[in-house]
Amino acid sequence: MSVETTTASVEDATAPPFELPEAPLHLRLLLEAGSAIAWSEPVEILTYEPLEPSALPMFFDQRVYQGSSGRVYPIPFIERIDSTPHLRRWEAIHLENQYVRVMILPELGGRIHVAYDKTNGYDFFYRNNVIKPALVGLTGPWMSGGVEFNWPQHHRPATFLPVQSSIETHEDGSVTVWCSDHDPFTRMRGTHGVHLDGDSSTIRVDVRLHNTTSLAQTFLWWANVAARVNDDYQSFFPEDVRFVADHARRALTAFPRADRPYYGVDYQERAHQHPGADRLDFYRNIPVPTSYMVVDTEDDFFGGFDHSVGAGFVHWADRRIAPGKKQWTWGNAPFGHAWDALLTDSDGPYIELMAGVFTDNQPDFSWLQPGESKHFSQYWYPIPAIGVAHQATPDAAIHVDRDDRIQAKVAVTRQQNGLRLKLVGVDGAPVAEITTDLAPGGVWAVDFDATFDFGMSLEVLDAQGERLLVWNPVRPSAVAEEPWTATAPPAPEDVASVDELYIIGVHLLQYRHPTRSPLPYWNEALRRDPRDSRVLTAMAEVSYRSGDYDTALQFIQAAVDRVASRNANPRHADALYLLGLIEARRGNSTAAREAFAKASWDGAIAGPAGLEMVRQSARASNYSEALRDLDVLDAVAANDRRRSVLRVVALRRLGRGTSADAALSRAITEQPLNPTIRFLHDGTLSQDGRLLVDVALELAHAGETAAALEVLSSATATVPGPGGNVIPMAHYHRALLLDRLGRSDDARRERERARAADRRWCFPSGLDDRDALVAAIEADRDPVARLLLGMFLYDAGRRDAALTEWEGAIASGLHDPLLFRNAGLASYNVVRDESRARRFYESAVALDPSNARLLFELDQLSERLGESDERRIERLSSRISVVMQRDDLVVEYAELLIRTGAPNRALQLIESRFFQPWEGGEGRVLGAWDRAREALGLPLADPPASLGEGRPLYTAPVARHANGEVDYFATSLPEDLLFPRP
Predict the structure, then answer these.
(1) Quick check: 402 and 452 in contact, CB under 8 A?
(2) pLDDT for 425-436, tens place per residue?
(3) pLDDT, tens digit, for every residue of 831-840?
(4) DSSP characters for 707-734?
(5) Measured in whole angstroms, how far is the alpha carbon of residue 779 from the centre of its chain?
(6) H/E element holding 525?
(7) C-alpha angle with apex 256: 250 to 258, nearest 5 degrees?
(8) What is the dihedral of CA 500, 501, 505, 511, to 10 degrees?
(9) Domain 685-780 listed as CATH 1.25.40
(10) Which residues does residue 234 pair with via DSSP β-bridges, in sequence order?
(11) Helical spans, DSSP H, in 637-724
(12) What is the pLDDT of residue 615?
């Protein structure tokens, strides 16, 4: 056998990167001593800034996004990116050891932006040298490069919002950078820690997801890892992978060689013309935007390798909880190249090698129970020139050639002296064993003098004989069993059983289906069995989440009656727990406590129900009782981190300062970025207004009303921005708390301040917001509160109630363009009153004539109402400066010019503008350009780069069938964003 140990070298092929700062001197000394180091220091990066969000809430009812709902409310929606870049200083946190260098951007969702292999000079994650977002994200801007940590859905709703961050240095010489935020929808807390040991090339990400709410919530977790690609870049999955699937498993194909058409591409036909063109593991072969996800594997790793430079990376995670392995690409064709240009200046193209936890597909949501935390880790490390990995662990990776003889190449993530490689024969006996010293960045190449047989295996062991890796060859099967594919559920009336109707409804809710509601299935179930407790409980929860407590109470009382009809102590107490939540919101604390107490007999519910009772005790200043209940809960139920705040508050109120300090010390160690714990610890408050409201509400639930009022006062002084505006709501929350204290005059003044406050981007969400607004309306028929409550109700699906609030605010004399626009939207979508919708919209435009979004929506409404092209073009022509503010308005105007006999003007208009298409809405600009040229007798041509679009080579699957029915697996419905078709 022959043995060779080498160290690879990679030359940078990108444009000159932005400057990474050198570590401070005192940290360089630690680095030289073998420790990992971390420090915070800004970096200057050329940046294309997102422009100001729309002041209008986007109620995207039927938006399909990443296969699930594309709703964005309550986050303000950004619709354009500045086309002129500037140098911006970004807050950055740097991690480094002797092998790798990492940079995190806390202001951009805590993403990893740089991961650099110091042993060979290779960026093993794609380093984008500009911050150049395109309109890809859930709320608008999204950027390529590095690692985006996506939760609770794709793409991370807070991907362009800041996170809290801290650096933790450990006694063993390792470091962790923690990033944490509350998701913008349900305010669950997500925390990820990027960890680096002093002696390892592995980046470990430790994740803690905590449901801080009182209801079960759905979530997913996918880490999007970008890799810069070329014709020689190969993605690799475990060798036992035989099939990959599209989103929602709607389509399958074999892997790595596609054995059927996939995403409209006949790969087998392409391979007849160009041998090897059916290989999906090479970027060069995929001509259309394509996702594929591993269906089944027994292994824990995957990754990518660049054969042109001899370097790549591995991802590893425990497949029992982290089965997701996926590749995404824009496609190696003009369409994809256009998107590459929108997302970078000189870097790219790239692919994404995405790793999912608790999921192996998209959309594929899991549940977090009230108070539940889920903890897991993911690992990434660079690999040198071994080729694609055929087996990998966090400690080592191996590539095995076995055509005739066995040739192996091994890489490790730590210095290994006395590393052993053992070849084991088919009988289990060692065939050969050799030893070497190997460090990260080195390649151990071994040529065994043995003929390959499928019964053989290779073992990599450390000097103590501990197995670091075992490679067993996968025997190819003659006929691979075809995995299942998803099917659309039948119509409710065609479903065979109540049980299946219930399950389908849960599926639609859990997977956040964008175009189908669970309610028709559950209503059909109740038609067949009006007392089905599961369905009644589900309907009660839907009503409760929407703030309709009375309806929720009717459903849940019927469910409890059924559950307890033959057993006063039911096995499952979820209905009783929900009854307690509903009664508590209705102000019936005694009934709520009774329900919670009975629910706590169920071990699965004991924790959440017990916590609600502790909160009741704290609000009533019964802190001794609260503390006793906390001790009981710690003994009988799983840990709920929400208890930490309650325990510290109770101990302080009982004068047990030493115990309170000890509890607080434990809490700050376990949850260093918990904003309420930090406030209790040293008074630290965030500058994020929504986070301040979260802290205040948690303090109020713990009976700390004075502290809650203090924090809400700080929230009223925050600056509105892309994350929203809480100033009016902070005043309304203060008013509600002050009323409960009997300070009615102070409460009235807070409501006056709320009405006078800046309302831009104030989009209420959550039941606490709902309750504060209802209290304000009951106190003095507050028209601003009615405007804001209407937005909560409309987003919650209570459209008729929303319109009632908006019309009431208008009748009270409130003249606000947002109010009239919302009333117009509801008049069309809810009650189908077209003339009233037009009047409201025209009033909104008259109040804010320079608002291009309002003009666009009025034009879209006018089109749906059958207004003539001539009338529409007359309106737009009179406001041409406003039209020019929006791509979509320019396209509509150009289409009108074409239809009214002025295609030359349309073509000139289109070609004089730089367009920024958004994902899912591609083709509009290109289509108008083609139609203008066709009307002028010009031939079909390649579009100019200014259109921001390339011509697709293949036809994508349709979202809407010829009969008008929306496909169950639809991926885009851009025409239904705001005015769904009747």
Answers:
(1) yes
(2) 999 999 999 999
(3) 999 999 999 9
(4) HHHHHHHHHTTSPPBTTB--HHHHHHHH
(5) 39
(6) helix 519-528
(7) 55
(8) 30
(9) yes
(10) 282, 305
(11) 643-653, 657-670, 675-682, 689-701, 705-715
(12) 98
C-alpha span between 65 and 358 (Å, rounded) = 20
SS3 for 314? strand
Those residues whose C-beta lies under 8 Å from the C-beta of residue 45, and which sit 6 or more positions away, are 18, 87, 88, 90, 129, 130, 131
Which numeric CATH code is attached to 393-471? 2.60.40.1930
What is the mean predicted confidence (pLDDT) over 204-209?
98
pLDDT above 50 (res 207): yes
Q: Residue 439 in contact with residue 412, Cβ under 8 Å?
A: yes
Name residues whose C-beta falls within 8 Å of residue 650's C-beta, 6 or more positions apart in sequence: 618, 623, 626, 627, 630
Would the CA dihedral through 798, 804, 810, 812 be positive or negative? negative
| pLDDT interval class at 977 (50, 70, 90) | confident
For residue 247, the 8-state DSSP code is: G
In the numeric block, which tokens belong to residue 488?
Answer: 């659309």
- How far apart (Å, rounded) are the C-alpha atoms in residues 93 and 641? 27
| Fold entry, domain 789-848 | 1.25.40
| Paired sense of beta strands 140-142 and 134-137, if any | antiparallel
On whether the CB atoms of residues 48 and 133 are closer than 8 A, the answer is yes
The identity of residue 275, as a single letter, is P
- Residue 13 pLDDT class (50, 70, 90 cuts): very low
CA distance 445 to 367: 46
Same fold, 685-780 and 789-848: yes
| Structure tokens, 435 | 């030893």
Question: DSSP for 197-236?
Answer: -TTB--EEEEEEEE--SSS-EEE-EEEEEEEE--TTEEEE
Domain boundaries, the chain: 2-383, 393-471, 641-684, 685-780, 789-848, 850-951
Residue with tokens 């003994």: 635
Give the model's pLDDT for residue 976: 67
Euclidean distance between CA atoms 904 and 24, whole angstroms: 61
User: Tokens representing 243?
Assistant: 């099939």
Q: DSSP state, 393? A: -
CA distances from 128 to 9, 124, 149, 344, 356 (A): 21, 12, 17, 7, 23
What architecture is domain 2-383?
A: Distorted Sandwich (2.70)
CATH, domain range 850-951? 1.25.40
- Backbone φ, ψ for residue 634 (5° rounding): -60, -30
Sequence-distant (≥ 6) Cβ neighbours of residue 331 within 8 angstroms: 286, 287, 288, 289, 290
Q: What is the per-residue pLDDT across 264-302, written as a single tens digit (0 to 9) for each? A: 999 999 999 999 999 999 999 999 999 999 999 999 999
Smallest Cα–Cα separation from 442: which of 474, 422, 413, 418? 413
Cβ neighbours of residue 919 under 8 Å, at least 6 residues apart? 134, 135, 136
